[in-house]
Design brief:
Number of strands: 0
Shape: elongated
Strand content: under 5%
Number of helices: 6
Distance between the termini: 80 Å
Order of helices and strands: HHHHHH
Helix content: over 70%
Radius of gyration: 34 Å
Largest sheet: none
């Protein structure tokens, strides 16, 4: 329904563009100016319909992807993770927490940024001492 109403609006805009062209070109005697106005009207029409086509056909959601989202529903708490955490002792949970924090500190790298900066400072100090 929305596509039909925008189609009619674009059709009316196209009619207005070309009606304006014909009204303006009648009193003009210069063929160069008439040619220029014809190119402007044609370019406006092409741009108008390209925008309509991209908006109408390019922004439709994929029906398969939408139905897939509805099947999954909202993300719930992972029962496997809850079971694993319940099976761990307090010391094991603390060790896991520390390991995860170390991984986060490493920022996805094998060596953390702090360790790299510290090593760089040590190298700089050695150079200045020598």
């Amino acid at each position: 329904m929305a596509r039909a109403s925008t189609f009619l609006l674009h059709l009316a805009a196209t009619f207005f563009i070309w009606a304006s062209f014909f009204v303006v070109q009648m009193p003009l005697q210069d063929s160069g100016m008439v040619d220029f106005l014809a190119m402007v009207a044609f370019g406006s029409t092409v741009a108008l319909w390209l925008v309509w086509a991209f908006n109408s056909y390019g922004s439709q959601p994929q029906p398969q992807a939408e139905s897939e989202k509805q099947k999954r529903g909202p993300v719930e708490h992972d029962a496997r993770l809850a079971t694993l955490l319940e099976l761990l002792s307090d010391e094991e949970r603390l060790a896991l927490k520390e390991r995860l924090l170390d991984d986060l500190r490493a920022d996805g790298e094998a060596v953390s940024l702090a360790d790299l900066l510290e090593a760089q400072d040590e190298r700089s100090r050695r150079r200045f001492r020598s």
